[in-house]
Every structure is written in C-alpha cells, then in structure tokens.
Amino acid sequence: MADNGKKKITKKKREEVIKANKERNVKALDDELSELPVEHVKQLFMLRQREKGNTQPTIDFYNRFFKKYYAFLENFEGKDTSIEILTMDAMRSAFELSLGKVKKQTINAYMRAYRAFGNFAEEEGFIVGFRCPIKEVTLPPKDCYTQKEKDKLTVKPSLLNFEEFRNYTIVCLLLATGIRTNSILNLRIKDVNLEEGTITLLKTKTGVNTVLPLQRKARQALQEYIGYWRNVDEGDTTPEDYLFCNCYGASLTRGGLSTAIANYNKRRGVDKTSLHLFRHTFAKDWILGGGDLVSLSLMLTHKELDMVKHYANLYPVDLRDKVEQFSSSAQLRDRSGKTLRTKKKEELE
Q1: Domain identity same for 154 and 275
Q2: Residue 129, number of CB atoms within 10 A of its CB
Q3: What pLDDT, in 10s, does the model give residues 206-250?
C-alpha cells in the first residue's frame, strides 16, 4: 500500500484546538500559531520525544536531523522561520534536495524525521495541511555471514586470553539473539540469568525491557566467561558492573566494540566486520530455518512487524514444503475413489 506520509487532522481535533486557543486569547489556528518559529515547535517536539521514553540514539538522530534542517533554513530566517514552511510542498522538496548525493535510504531516514516533526506540528494545531510522502526503496539482500564464516568465528579460544574470549562470547551472543550493539554495550552482569538461560535487555530501541532466551552455545560461552572473568562471588565485580568491559574493567564504547570485533573477525580469516550484519544473519537464518515472523519480531525487539516483513522479503523461503504441511487442502483426508468405483461396478453387474 502506498504511504502518502500524511497524518490527517480531524475536524473535531481542529475545533478543539481552535477552542483551546481562543480560551488562551490566542488568535485563529491559521493565524498566530502558524507564525511561531520553527525553533519553538522543535523544543516542544524534542520534549515530547523524551517524555515518550525514546532511547538516546533516537534522540541523537533527531538532533542530527534538526542540524540538517537548520542548515537548510539558513536560506530563509534560520531558526526563526515560521513553522508554516512545513505546509509548503516546494520547501519539502527543496530540503530533500539539500541533503545532497547520499544513499536513498539515508535521505528517507531524514525525511521520516521531517515527517514526524510535521505530524507533531499538525497534531498540536500549529499548522494544517502538512504532507510528506516517502517512496521507500527496496534494498538488496545483505551479504550475511556464511556458515563457513560462522564456524570460524565460533571456534572457542583459550579462556586465559581475556579479550579473545570476551569477543568470542559476544559473537556467540549476537548469533544466538540478534541483539543490537547498544544492548550489548549496556548489558550488566545481573542481566544474565544462567540458571534460567535468559538475558534481560533494559535498554532497547523500543524502550521496553525484554527477556530473551539463550541458545545453548551462547549460554555455555557466557557461563565460562562470567565464571572466570566476571565472577561476582570472587568479589572482583558487582552485579551492576558491565558484562562486557575493556581490559581495565571499564565499559566498552561503541567504537571500541566495533574495532574489537573487526579485529577478531580478521584474525579468524573473516573479511566481513560489521556488527549489525550479525543481526541480519540472525534474521535470515531464522526465516530460512522456518521460524515464524511474530517470534522473530519478539527476538529482535521490534514493536511492529514491518521490519521483520522486510527481512522476509529479502530472504524468501521455498514454500512448497509449507504448502504440503499447512495449507487447507493438506488437512483433507485422501480419498482414493475406491468406494465410488466399487459402487459403479456393482450397478453395472
């Protein structure tokens, strides 16, 4: 279905906003409110994002969007440009062009932020008539980690080598759960329940705490890693300490983790180094292995099924076996026709 990008403001909502404005001795909806500067509405928008409990990476992305948008507004009155500019289709197109020659998915990401800002402005009654259609691009399948590469990356190293065994454990966890880099960085020792075989993600992109089951290999790797290097019972660490730390016991940075895994992969003879590619690999293997999309969305902590449907489109499975197993006609009892033939034969005799 085509996405026209427009979130309509209802007549009832418009009337409520106008009434509220009049009660505050503010002029008509399309008068003073539409003259408010972009900066004023932006501050309200960012406040709303924090109230919603959006994660820091999401907040950071919106800040990057506004940096781009304010650079565009320098052609007008900068931050003091009227919020009404959002209702002008030509200005939307001009902003999109100002993003330059970057990947289409990068442009779409910024335009989705633009749409979220415009929808907020309309919902709050600052503007009327906002629209932001976005033509989504179909991305080619990712060149995921192959079985041979996964085998190389999951050969267990010496437990005495802290960094190598830590990286091995991280790779096992990534392949077992498909969790995001931010979740890896924020895991605490207390978040791992080896007895139950689960990990608790307290900082996910959706802002929802999630408990995920651990596959056997990842559980074993974590048990050895924690038992030798992050053992709370020995008094060197506390449950609140980060699970994956640097050699000094301090938390890993995103760049530090990325570099550590890249070097680990190269030492194992694997040229691919992307952390996020483990997530794509997990999704691909889940789908090709016959796993259902609802369970996959829970494992990947997606609020909606849209992203896992995207994975399913990237990695279509052969449906023939599923048709033979799950279709309505497969549930019907086979009838040989013998009864009818026998009856017909008896009639002829």
Answers
A1: yes
A2: 13
A3: 556 889 999 999 999 999 999 999 999 888 899 999 999 999 989
